[in-house]
Amino acid sequence: MSAILYPVAASAEEALAKPRGRAAREREAGELAAGPVRFVTETTGPAFATREAALDAYAGRLDDARPGRTVQVAPEDRYLALAERIEGATPAPQEPTFEGGRRWPAPGTAQGRTVFRLAVSYWRLVSADAGPPPESPAEQARSMRRRTEAAGLTAAQLRALQRQPLRPVKPQQPLDVGLFEMPAPEAPHILIPDE
Questions:
Q1: What is the average pLDDT score of the chain?
Q2: What mean pLDDT comes out for the span 73-92?
């Protein structure tokens, strides 16, 4: 069985047009990129109203089972797929009604229209993701959330606060000897259960 060879690129458009190479595994992709990479799947290109229009636009790059246009892509080239999305406004959440033996009201009409877009799976360069690192508050989230300044944090600062590791408030205290435990007479540093 052949492995899928995913493009190594900085963006989905670059992955389609001119990737830096193709690799099946992260280690190989990192060697091609000369740096760290991460695996992503992104939609790109125009939105098509029908599946047939999308298959015609990307002829030869996607599997096509339509009569007269049958195309089967090689196993190593299966990094593209059609993604079906709803475009437009999403319906507002509904409150339960509990009327007439039903919990939820009848669904309304669909607010958006269905479109088809090309989804590209590729190894994205981590350096392409990096902008200036967001400034992280010095405090941890558990103490920052109680302060009035917490309401003024930007979205980037909140994400940085979320990503920082937890630090202990104070050093961990030694374990207490429980009700049914006692130190061993020959080795006081070992606790043994006592019935």
A1: 83
A2: 85
